[in-house]
Amino acid sequence: MSESATVFEGEELSGGSTPPVAPGEAKAIAGKSPMKLAMMRLRKDKLTMVSLTVVVLVVVAAVLAPLLVKMGVLDPFGYNQELLDANTIPEGGWSGASASHPLGVEPGTGRDAMSRFWYGITFSLMIALTAAILSVVIGAVIGIIAGFSGGWLDAVLSRFTDLTLSFPSTLMLLALSALGLELVQQVTGLPNGPLAQGIYCTVVLALFGWTSTARVVRGQVLSIKQREFVEAAIVLGASKPRIYFKEILPNLWAPLLVLVTLMMPAYISAEAALSYLQVSVKPPTPTLGNVLTDSLKYAQVDPFYFFMPAILIAIIVISFNLLGDGLRDALDPKGDR
After folding, report:
1. What would be the CATH architecture of the domain defined by 123-331?
2. Which of 129, 193, 253, 311 is the most buried (most CB within 10 A)?
3. What is the value of pTM for the model shown?
4. 84: which strand partners?
5. 76 Cβ partners below 8 Å, 6+ apart?
């Protein structure tokens, strides 16, 4: 056979014999799973990989922060009044930055700014991630039931979704803040502190944030329920819960993963806005939102302290958004860009 001829695996020569296939050739024609194809597309997207790196670093920092506080490496609550001038403004430039306080200190109190930024990431991500997971769980359940059932139940759940979507969530948060926080304290037995305030903020964000997930999941289920494996489960007499969570739900992991990554930045921004409205976790416990809110008072006299939390929130929000967009493109390459 000439060198230019190509023989594929399983193809017979003219004499009837099957030529041996080199391992390299067999691998070259081997098929790839959808997951491998998605990972290949994801790795080729440099912007998404950079965003993924930033998100991983932020998550690791959020996980390590409580440990570092217990070990005394971070001190978000300690006062350093000696580092402030007569007007309670940090002495020196860059918010009084030094080797012991790399990002300076907080005006008015002298608390270490880096410790408060770092520890604030933990509370902000915890609120955002918990609210995103709750939103996806509620929306997925309602979307699956509505899309699979059809008929009057689909109509009722769809109108309920539209009704929830029409509520002004920010005004509801403000109106229900006192009653809702008291209810959280009664149910959980927690005092009026950062944990109860965080739970209230998380629950309300989730209760008004599941509607987009329900709509996306319903649309996916309308297509999935026509497939053979779902019809086979129905013929075999499988119960509806089994069809919902054993047959349909595993085929929704890709859009649900994308929805979580896109909800995270929205909820981080929402927490910052709620902190400004005095509804979220209140100082001295730091979150990115209440640190940014506190920095507004010193925007003119100490701009470095004002811009640092704003830049940090912007980096985290943009990274999660770019990661979500990249995951969507990698997992659904035929979808609209």
Report:
1. Orthogonal Bundle (1.10)
2. 129
3. 0.84
4. 90
5. 69, 111, 112, 115, 116, 118, 119, 120, 284, 286
